[in-house]
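Input chain follows. Return structure tokens only.
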Amino acid sequence: MLYPPINVRQLRQVVRDEVRQRAEEGCEVGQLGRRAEDAGEDRDRLLAVYEDLLALQPRPDFPFIEPSDLAGIRAARPAGGMAAARSGHVATPPRVAAVAPSHIDAAVADRIHGGWLGRCAGLMLGKPFESSPFVEDAQAIRRYLEAARAYPLDDYPPFDAAACQAVGRTDLPWPGCHRGRVRHVEPDDDIHYTIMGLEVLEKKGAAFTTADVAHWWTHRLPAADVFTAEEAAYRNLMLLQGQFEPHKLTPEQFEQVRTWMNPYREWIGAQIRADGWALACPGDPERAAEFAWRDASLSHVKNGVYGEMLCAAMIAAAAVCDNPAQIVQAGLAQIPEKCRLADAIRRTIDQCAALGYSAARFEDGIAWLWREFGHYHPIHTINNAAAVVAAVLLGSGDFGRTIAMAVMCGWDTDCNGATAGCICGTLLGAKRLPTKWIEPLNDTLRVNVLGYNPYAISGCARRQVEVARQVASSA
């Protein structure tokens, strides 16, 4: 086993989080939670509890089937690879007709550019709310916006000192994201990973591996910019001394990388990494999902992996599809039919249908999401993926409404705004995106990746189009 250099207080939190994680995976944790508390700050006792937690298996009556390997995931997809039509929804085949290299024309290139711009705008909209109390309580976002006379959101959020006091804060973070102050895209892991997907595909092509992703992380991604599951996997790579030659790590060692001291392996970290892979596969959600699986497998398992596959498939479908319901079904078709995430997404689809796919019913949608999924951690995959899907469906192709709802749901606001923004931006294309969201960005990224500070968003999009042509040629 690996023994990470974390202090005993951090270890105690990891064990507490692991108790919750194992319970969510269907294991009977019994008295292990009590044992963890009783262990206090005794490192040896905490490690003993942790290893007992890892030894647990899901109970026999656990109703979900959740493999982490690609073959197992594909075998567990909906019968025939089609997301079953439910409650009158339009089902779509899992593999929307792939776009041939010669057909990645100006229209598809515009959609790819729209995906990049949509992600950037949605990220910037959500970034001021990615802290307490907003992530724990969607109503705190509403209270702030109402006090600032900006509810519901229809522009970047304004700074208002009295509104901050209304939610118990002294400020609103990230002033560069406030209304009237946006000049460029601020540094954020939601963009760093999109760049990662682009760069890995440029250098390694469609045959890239999880080890290639690991190499990029440890050579290009600052350690200070990784969090939760990614931080754990990054640390484990270092402990295995695989940071310089990850291709020499064995499958067993990669299993340690993604699981050891990583109770966050089903949280949202992989889901936010989908875009760079997906935009390279316009019209090919199955391939986009496979690329996402290779990436997610470095740090996540089960629903953590499915979240990235779901979003990648939706983005790929959005490049050739104009129907939000079909886009969501294309994503659902790429993950196991009987997993917790698929169950949550199907229930979300049903609720959005009951609300008439109406943006005017967004408040009802947010209230329902919190009743159904509020028990998850604010940065878990399942609740946040449901929020993204609800925003896409209720937004009905309106870019501003889509990203605004994704952010007003709370939880991981910047991640959800970015993912919903990429899906809707890809659906619409750059030329159809409202200027109020796009012009303030000044086509400029400022990120913590060497060689990209500053860098043009349009430049990334042009490179992404070339990568998409190369990927399509390799099919």
